[in-house]
Automatic annotation (TrEMBL), chain A:
Pfam families: PaaB (PF06243)
Enzyme Commission (EC) number: 1.14.13.149
UniProt protein name: 1,2-phenylacetyl-CoA epoxidase subunit B
Protein's organism: Candidatus Dechloromonas phosphorivorans
Keyword Chloroplast on entry: no
Amino acid sequence: MTTALKEWPLWEVFIRSKQGLEHKHCGSLHAADAAQALDMARDVYTRRQEGVSIWVVESKAITASNPDDKGELFDPAADKIYRHPTFYEIPDEVGHM
Amino acid sequence: MSAVDYLLHLADNALVLGQRNAEWCGHGPVLEEDIALANVSLDLIGQARLLYQLVAGRQGGGATEDKLAYFRDTQEFRNYTLLELPHHGPLSGYAKAGLDYATTIVRNFLYSALMALLWEALEKSADADLAAIAAKSLKEVRYHLRHSRDWLVRLGDGTDESHARTQAALDHLLPYTQEFWAGSPAESAAIAADIGVDPNTLKSDWDTIVDAALAEATLQRPPLGGYVPEGKQGIHSEHLGYLLAEMQSLARAHPNGAW
């Protein structure tokens, strides 16, 4: 027997849709452990056939960037449009890309 | 008795337990469980609808799924008595005295363990319509079993409080499962027609599922004995009437209403 939890930890839920290749974050829920989080994610987030695969990860396992660092992290990329492959002429034979 | 009565028995089981579990809607112990249990109820009511539609088609004479669900009285219902009991122990006063989640979980576990075996066997029914419903229902009930078994183990092997409540629920409910194996004229007729399955052929597998889960949950299997209920023959506890009154009141107040 393990110690009883007063509160269940928070889990982030990622669902892969039938068409999608990647798992997308769709929300969060409370559950006692990973196995239960998976079952609860099924019940809470796939009721309308949203998914064919579920990932759950405990929210505290996620390290997030600090919103206050937004300037130094992301703004320097703003004036480097040459990083986007938009300057190539695409031959007609290639068709839709 | 005919095979149609057997279909009604299966349908009434699903409807009555679906209605019972729906009492948790908006009252679940946590939001996630509230949704999970509503999902279980909707699966069961979906199964009931398919079976009632099948029965109505075969009975003819203006029978509909709504008439079967809303305009039959207690003694015409063919569900197991286990499924109509309120969500609490035997001496807790009236039906809304308190919703005990251990009772809910133990009942769902005992019934789902049976239905996981029964629907699988009914996939081979000589009645092709019933076999198709069985195939759909089997997937649903396997999840119900997974859900209730998971909670059975968590509650049984949980705190002193959750263990005591789950053991009490098991002591209260397990004797009602004797009805699973007791036989009825409707079942005999369905077995003879190769439409139904003799539940006694499923008993040892059911015991294996139940005993393994109880061991994991550190729960003691109580001794059987005493009264064997006869809900599937229309002889019910006092609780079914209240359940039907609530479920049927709207349809009876507005007959032929559409929504």
